[in-house]
Design brief:
This protein is of the alpha+beta class and 298 residues long. The protein has one domain. It is 28% helix and 27% strand. The protein has helices at 5-25, 30-33, 87-91, 99-123, 189-194, 224-235, 259-267; strands at 34-38, 43-45, 73-75, 77-86, 140-142, 145-147, 150-153, 158-161, 170-183, 196-209, 215-219, 251-254, 270-271, 281-282, 290-293. Strands 7-11-8-12-15 form a 5-stranded mixed β-sheet, with helices on one face. It has a 4-stranded mixed β-sheet with strand order 1-9-10-4. A two-stranded antiparallel ribbon has the order 2-3. A hairpin with a 2-residue loop joins strand 5 (140-142) and strand 6. Helix 1 crosses helix 4 (99-123). The longest helix is centred in the middle third of the chain and has 25 residues, at 99-123. The chain is elongated, with a radius of gyration of 25 Å.
């Protein structure tokens, strides 16, 4: 292939088509647990999270839930990944070698928000959320009460989430969409000095904690007893006025090391018990939540 700007433009068009196809075909789960918020500025304020709205009977004047004069701000960050293409490979029509790499770039960009959310889950025991307490804590202030969304323990963590609402447990703030960019002019210094053309992906965004009420964590052994306790505790959470929030635990997130236990709780028809007490018994928790196994949860 003769290398000129027209040929390089066609090359970029081809790479873009490969990138877009792989990006669209990549399955993701982050939209199940995080609400995507388009951002029009670098820093967004989510003070609406300071109140959990509920409908009440209208008697007398309306009771107005005013947003507290506090701030919960999230700053977008820049993310990128870049590859190099040898100019000789273009001359020798070896571009098929790079299509899988371009596809891998697209897949990485598409799933990157999930890595950010997994980091939030892992760090939620030591990182504060909008109320100033760790996202997973035993002392979230609700009115005059201290409410827990952490069961304690010292083992491998597992997580129970309510993903049925418009507001999610996490936020994915998107300032600029993912795009494939290039540095392939023949008069670019890198191309001139090293015979390398560069292609990369970048976007601007951030992940942050949403409503702690919609997430519950435990480091106790994952079994039917502790799973039942987590569900009961989560569904008993009330607002500052003492009204139950009506939470519906719908998703169990676990690392690969707990997949077998999670599948037994959520998918097995029977639970194998002590033979002395009758052996197998009906699994009352079958189908009570979806299962999501996340390799990044370590």
């Amino acid at each position: 292939m003769i290398i000129n700007q027209e040929a390089l433009a066609r090359l970029y068009t081809g790479f873009t088509a490969v990138f877009n196809a792989a990006f669209q075909d990549t399955q993701t789960w982050h939209d199940r647990v995080a609400m995507t918020v388009p951002a029009n500025t670098r820093i967004m304020d989510y003070k609406f999270l300071l109140d959990f709205p509920m409908v009440r009977e209208w008697i007398g004047d309306r009771q107005i839930s005013s947003l507290e004069p506090k701030a919960y701000q999230v700053e977008s960050k820049d993310w990128e990944a870049t590859i190099e293409v040898d100019r000789n490979d273009i001359e020798d029509d070896q571009l098929g070698l790079y299509n899988p790499i371009i596809s891998a770039l697209a897949q990485e960009a598409r799933t990157h928000p999930e890595k950010l959310i997994a980091d939030l889950l892992v760090g939620g025991f030591t990182t504060s959320c909008y109320d100033g307490h760790n996202f997973f804590a035993v002392d979230h202030p609700v009115g005059t009460e201290a409410v827990a969304n952490f069961a304690g323990g010292s083992g491998v963590a597992w997580y129970l989430l309510d993903t049925t609402r418009a507001v999610k447990p996490f936020i994915f703030q998107l300032r600029r969409e993912v795009q494939l960019v290039r540095m392939d002019r023949q008069d670019d210094e890198h191309s001139f000095m090293r015979k390398k053309l560069r292609y990369g992906v970048d976007y601007r965004g951030a992940a942050a904690f949403g409503l702690w009420q919609l997430a519950y964590a435990s480091k106790e052994t994952l079994n039917s007893t502790n799973y039942a306790g987590a569900r009961a505790t989560m569904m008993s959470v009330k607002n500052a006025g003492g009204r139950p929030l009506g939470l519906k635990p719908s998703l169990l997130m676990v690392p690969p090391s707990l997949e077998a236990e999670a599948r037994e709780i959520l998918q097995a028809q029977f639970i194998i018990g002590d033979p002395a007490s009758g052996g197998a018994k009906t699994n009352v928790w079958q189908g009570t939540a979806d299962l999501l196994v996340v390799p990044e949860l370590i």
